[in-house]
Amino acid sequence: PCPRHNVPAKPLVVNLALCDQVGDLLIRCRYGLRVKRPNAESPDSGLTSPSSLVGGCSSYEVDPSGCNAEIRLGNRLEHENCCPHSPAVCSRGCGLTVKLRDLQEHESDCGGNGTSCSSVCVGARQRMEKQIRHLEEQLEQRTAESERIRVMLSGVVERLDRLDRHVTDRLQLLEINQAEHQDLLADSLAKQDRLQEAIVVVNELVSSIASVQPGGNVWQTFKCLGTFVGHRGPIWCLLGGGDYLYSASGDKSVKMWQVSSSNELLKTLDGHDGPVLSLALTGSVLFSGSQDNTIRVWDVAPASAEFGTCLKTLKGHTDSVSTLCVSKLYLFSGSFTLVKVWDLASRICLRTLTGFVRWVRALVVSQQLLYVGCGNSVLVIDLCNFSTVRSLCTDEEGNNVSCLSVMRTSAGLKLLSGSHDMSVAVWSLHNMLRTQTLQRHQGIVTAMAVCNSRLFTGSADCSMRVWAP
Question: Where in the sequence is the domain holding 148, given as residue range(s)?
């Protein structure tokens, strides 16, 4: 009976499935472990006694000089009986215990007959002599390599000296040439200033002459009234709203101007991490798109407590937001080969218009039609079904449209498109024909806005022009 519970002992039934699972457990070979010895250097080699791995509460660590095999628990005895790191006793009678893998080499050097001390010394001396010869050969190789490196270094030093002298001579020659080029540059700048003055005079003469159609009818012309100065970078976008004009620049800021009377600067909006490329306005809320791939929402009501503060940041574009415009229900944002449509109230992206082959640089909405400036064309999209209904092309390939605006004049509704040829094209929305070309800027026309029956245009020449019909 059981000595503890005093019940008849019954034979246990072996659980074969559990035995197989236990037998499949992976363990390390006992000859790859050693007892962890704190505050002591770990030996580079040595044998682990089988008895030291059984019982006790010692902790163990991996022996880098031992067996590194991971074996199944069921194959433990089979592996450890033939493990190269298992201990074996010399059969020559010296009484020395060595690893199984070293037994054959030891027995070939062992004298046997119980002379363990002499056999160990002889074998150790032979191994030491062999190692000494090997070290001497390595020393000779290292000496030869050191000599070759010394010769190479001396050659490198000589070449560096020659190169230093050559560079010094070239620097002296460059200093002389730089002084000559500075004189030439100063002379060229003076000539350029005189040329710019002559161009301004010629442009004023040309703008004072009315363009005439082949039939003899005089076209309506625009005249420049003044120039705004204040930004530290190119003007990328202009927007008019009531008595105010908003200008976006490469200096990462948006400026708000009073244009009804004093033409003074009211507010500078800072917050973008890149050049501000586009603007859109609805009520007292201003949207600004930037090269940092975001759209910021600003409060621009002068009487508001949050005047000039950023209300929200819209994210979703993976490229620069190059243009913005609003309708009654939507905010449109243009980027590389696409246009995103946002709900104006919730400011959530509703859809993405794709299929454009180039950057969408300009957007404007008029009478349920969205005008998209892409490449050297202006695409007309019906907002009822978002399909393209017409395409207006500029004169030549590469003359890309950079900005768009719609203006109502006494001659009817006009579409104005600024382009890379430093001009503004005036299109009649009645017959979709170009009626006039405005030329006064000295750089790419990057922005335009209509405010108080006047047209404001911004350019990469860091200036804004004011035009009146």
Answer: 107-209
Q: What is the DSSP letter of 443?
A: S
Query: What's the number of domains the chain is made of?
Result: 3
Which residue among 209, 244, 267 closes a domain?
209
Is residue 312 a part of any domain in this protein?
yes
Say yes or no: 63 and 141 in one domain: no
Q: What is the 8-class DSSP label of residue 302?
A: T
* DSSP-derived secondary structure letter, 304: S
Regions in the chain scoring below 50 on pLDDT: 40-48, 50-56, 114, 116-117, 209-220
Domain presence at residue 400:
yes
Helix or strand (DSSP H, E) at 295: strand 294-299
pTM of the shown model: 0.47
* C-alpha to C-alpha distances, 164 to 169, 254, 279, nearest whole angstrom: 9, 52, 56
- The answer to whether 283 touches 295, Cβ cutoff 8 Å, is no
- pLDDT digit string, tens, across residues 354-405: 888 888 888 888 888 888 888 888 888 888 888 888 887 766 666 788 888 8
| pLDDT one-digit tens code per residue, 263-278 | 788 899 999 999 998 8
Buried b (16+ CB within 10 A) or exposed e, 404-434: bbbbeeeeeebbbbbbbbbbbbbbbbeeeee
Same domain, 61 and 136: no
Q: Which residue has the tokens 């909405």?
A: 365
